[in-house]
Amino acid sequence: MLNILLSGCNGNLSRAVIEYCENRRDARIAAGIDHAPGRTSLPFPVFPSPADVDDVKPDVVLDCSHPSLLPTLLEYCIRENLPAVLATTGYGEGEYAMLDDAAKHIPVFQSGNMSLGILLLKQLAKQAAQVLGEGFDIEIVEAHHNQKVDAPSGTAYILAEAVNEGLAAPRGYVYERQGRREARPGNEIGIHSIRGGTVPGEHTVIFAGFDEVVELTHRAYSKRIFAAGCLAAARWIADKPAGRYGMDDMFSQL
Fold first, then answer.
1. Which one from 104, 122, 126, 144 is the annotated catalytic residue?
2. What span, in angstroms and rounded, lies between the C-alpha atoms of 8 and 85?
3. Annotated active-site residue in 148, 192, 218, 223
4. Which end of the chain, N or C, is more open, meaning fewer C-beta atoms within 10 Å of its C-beta?
5. How far is Cα 37 from Cα 56, in angstroms, rounded to an integer?
6. Interval 40-56: pLDDT, tens
7. What H or E segment, with its residue span, contains residue 20?
8. Which of 219, 14, 21 is nearest to 117 (CA)?
9. pLDDT tens digit sequence for 3-31
10. What is the C-alpha separation between 6 and 234, in angstroms, rounded?
11. 144 is a catalytic site residue
12. pLDDT tens digit string along 154-204?
């Protein structure tokens, strides 16, 4: 039985993880971390910060919280020698540097999207860029619910990076064209964000050429797919040595 310490346990993704684990015999949520531990009633102890975790012996930490918690969370994982699975988005250069430093001591699994379908979309986008890219304009459109605070999504960046890996010459990112009175340059990737309603997540990579358009789309209909990916990552990384890991590493060994 894998014992998981769930950080951000009152969040939307965490609730999907909790529900997904309810009837499993190979993993359970042993405890949670949340800045408002009494906000909801959960069937496990909840602590206000990593520093307050007590009398719990988790096998892995799963973080679905906020980038601001990362320093104290990694400090706890290093002190307790625990693997960390980070499903939080919105990291900047400073946070990624922290991940690199922590990975010298513990296994760190990080992904901007935990879905197997997105992994396939990433691979298809790279392949399409290799075939079509030089003669096609490339745009990425992502849509999420109105409570998502970061834009563009981490997944949009994952897809943009995959596209650039497939191109002979990488292109820069453009996030809006308001006020630009000029024809669209060919050396850019447009990235656009839509926020509204309860959309769990939708990502489309558009290759627009002369008289033809190719679109690659992934739609998430619930957070259950991300919860399944989180649990798979937690189980996979539990016995790995220190280092940085991601979805590509996990699925290459399945």
1. 144
2. 13
3. 148
4. C
5. 16
6. 688 899 999 998 998 88
7. helix 12-21
8. 219
9. 999 999 998 899 999 999 988 889 999 99
10. 11
11. yes
12. 899 999 999 999 999 999 999 988 888 899 999 999 999 999 999 999 999
